[in-house]
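STRUCTURE:
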């Protein structure tokens, strides 16, 4: 089980925020200051140059310490607030199942992003537990099952990108 953190800057409606719902279920810890995100976290950052891959789970001879979702406005990312964190990774091509962005590629909710990262990093049961918190959640894993399995079987970020390119 990988500890999960979500940084929230409160720019989205709490009733629609998937990270808040996961926190209420005890599956994610919400933080409101960047300094509360552990430095050893794998930051899910759509602007990162490398893709999440199984190689990230083996970093430094052991599993990553935590995964952090950035549930914030683009201004926070553009300002480089999380620039000091070393491990930024983007998620590869996946299709959203959340009601707001259903069927749109790369428009994942925080819950979908965390579940995808867990799956790719070898924790499919944790991914399923995250998605079980939402009526539409299990469909995300079904909709992306082939891709998630192929990404999870990749050796490293470069191989994840090859899988993505092959699919597209």
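SEQUENCE:
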């Amino acid at each position: 089980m990988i500890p999960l953190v979500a940084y929230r800057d409160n720019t989205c409606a709490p009733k629609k925020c998937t990270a808040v719902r996961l926190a209420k279920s005890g599956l994610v810890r919400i933080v409101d200051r960047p300094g509360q995100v552990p430095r050893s976290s794998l930051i899910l950052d759509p602007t990162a140059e490398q893709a999440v891959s199984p190689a990230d789970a083996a970093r430094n001879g052991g599993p990553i310490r935590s995964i952090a979702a950035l549930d914030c406005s683009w201004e926070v990312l553009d300002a480089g607030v999380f620039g000091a964190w070393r491990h930024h990774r983007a998620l590869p091509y996946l299709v959203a199942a959340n009601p707001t962005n259903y069927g749109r590629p790369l428009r994942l909710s925080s819950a979908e992003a965390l579940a995808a990262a867990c799956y790719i990093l070898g924790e499919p049961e944790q991914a399923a537990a995250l998605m079980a918190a939402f009526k539409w959640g299990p469909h995300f894993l079904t909709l992306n099952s082939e891709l998630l399995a192929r990404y999870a079987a990749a050796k490293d970020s470069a191989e994840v990108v090859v899988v993505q390119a092959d699919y597209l």
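REMARK: The chain has one domain: 4-167.
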